[in-house]
Structures are given as structure tokens and as C-alpha cells.
Amino acid sequence: MEKVNEIIADLGFENIITLEDLPKIDLYMDQVIQLFEQKYGATKRTEDEKVLTKTMINNYAKGKLFFSIKNKKYSKEHLILISLIYQLKGALSLNDIKTTLDGLNEKIIAGDFNLEAFYESYLYLFTKNVESFKEDIEEKAKDVNEEITKLEEQDSQYLEKALFIATLVNISNLYRRVAEKLVDEIKECKKS
């Protein structure tokens, strides 16, 4: 697949909220939405797609995905949690995200947890994952190309894309299933 590097470049992996992007002051909901739109707007699949809406944030709050806000303002910790939610929602249900983040919220409320250090570790691993992904995607593209040449079909460009899509979705599902198993382990630990 010749356009794979172009596709990777268009994904906007550099568009992630870092600790430096987070203001030192608390933000109102509209400011939170604006921050996320500025950072992730380029990664939207279509112009109509919304990065974050008031409804989404209200649903996250009602679902207790993050601890309660004060005076209608979102702290740096809220922004970090919302950023994690934004990343997790691509693969996990809101219930699974809640289970995943419950422990973090409890630690934040108790005041004995450095969420910024946790998020910095996440950002470091995010960067490493992107590097591994770029190498892996090129390898998968080569594998797909080799398989397509074996078929000797006329519409090989379409078939190559279809096989590549199926391969990528398969890999995505494998990772998602492992994540869901880990969420289930968290649930089991809470029951004990």
C-alpha cells in the first residue's frame, strides 16, 4: 500500500494534550471544549464531527467518570481525566471507562496521588506506541501487499485496501479485547 505513510501523517499523532497545554487556572465548560477542539480538531474524520460537546461532558459528569467540579469550573485534574476519556472512548464503553478511572478519581479526592506524573507516563507511552505503530503498520502493509500479489486479481488496489482494513480491524479488536479483560480484572478486584 503505497499511501500508508501519507495516511499515517494525516492521523495527527502530534495532536495530544500535554501538561504544557493545560492552563494553570480552572476553565469553564466552553473553554474546555475550545481547548479540545483546538488540539484535536485536525484529527476529526469529517467537519461535522465534534471533538467534545457540552452533552458529552455532562454525560461524563453524570456517569461519574470524573470527580465533581466546583463553581462550574474544571481543574487541571479534570482536563487530564477528560483527555484520558477522549482517548479511551474509541475502544471502551463508558462503563468500562468509569471502571478504569474510578481508582484514579478516588486517589485524587483523597489527595494522595500525583495525576500529573501518571499522565506524563501515559504521554511517554503514547509516544512510544506511536513509534511502534508506524513500524508495525508498514510491516502490515507489506504483508497485505504480498498476499494480494498471490491472488492475481484485476481489482488488486481495492482488494488490497479491503484486506488491509480487515487486518487492521482484527488487530484493533485483539487489543480492545485485552483491554476489556483488564477492565474485568479491575471489577473483580473491587468485588473482593
TrEMBL record:
Pfam family membership, one: DUF1836
Keyword Coiled coil: yes
Keyword line: Coiled coil
Coiled-coil segments on the chain, per record: 134-161
PANTHER family linked: DUF1836 DOMAIN-CONTAINING PROTEIN, HYPOTHETICAL CYTOSOLIC PROTEIN
The protein, known as: Cytoplasmic protein
The organism of origin for this protein: Bacillus methanolicus PB1
